[in-house]
Fold these 2 entries.
Entry 1:
Amino acid sequence: MYQKIEASTCHVASRKMVSNFAMKNENHLSEMITFAFDINNELHVKAFWSLDLVCEKKLKQFVPYIEDFCNILPKIKDDSALRPATKIAYFLAKSNHRKNGISLTQEQEHNLIEALIDRLIQEEKVASKVYDMKALFVLGKKYNWVHDELKTIISQDYSNHSPAYQAATRNLLKKLNK
């Protein structure tokens, strides 16, 4: 697995090859997750690039690692790893909200909410913030206070960001104000 991740690039075809390889074998997936969650490892970012594709296709394979993911999410510093990590958080929130999806514990939900809100108020790249907002919106369907907090944060922060962030914020505020 090490060689596959090391040789991978940010291109979709490369990331798909690594994610497909990992999904075929539980040991490979476990090894890829170990690399992704080790924020001091040089392959940490590349492993996250492919891990978000695994979670997009087969989120149930990720279930045994959710607790560790909730613990590592607030510690991720690299923007290139943060985007796929917040995308995974969104997949988890979305699936947790479905009847036939995965089930997060209340503690896991609260850990995700806390990490995502913290990320949202920090200086992060727009793509990560958009996934933060989407995940918090879904989690807020269960915890009303999350929607209130989300409205406050994105309303205050609106004018300080790019047009892309403002567009995403406008769309979300429309949903929140319904």
Entry 2:
Amino acid sequence: MRTTVAVLGATGALTAAQLGLAGGASATDVSTQDTKCGIKITFLTRFYVDQNNWVTNGGLRFGLTNTTKKQTFNSVSLKVQNVKSLRFGKATVTTRPIGRITQKTDQTVKIAAKTLKPGKSAAFKVSTRLLSNRYEAKFTLYGKTPNGKSWSCPVNGGTWGNIH
């Protein structure tokens, strides 16, 4: 039996009633961005879970996109951490050669890109198991400007999932 799980992006939560668990939905991307940041985080809003609670089609997908027209970011990384009821398996970069997996445990996956030019993306998919219907992941985003100054975007600490 396949179950569709809808999730809310960035910061917020869905109750079980709002979730609806409707069948037949397809996976779609959603993103969160602060206009001052220039980086957009993308992730799935809907996905299927099999009878063993593994996300189908290779797992969850997360990524970042440089939305500026002229600014290049150096040493950009996106860290996705389990907060509640997620276990990560194998992680694979989907935007080679731009990104690489720099940290991978069953609780954390991190992708890094040496240079993220305007309009380019770095993304990965990770096989994921849901331990319960209540789950949450935390995003952390780091990088450097071309002149070497470190920055972290306001989307840091954003959460994704259905915890309330």
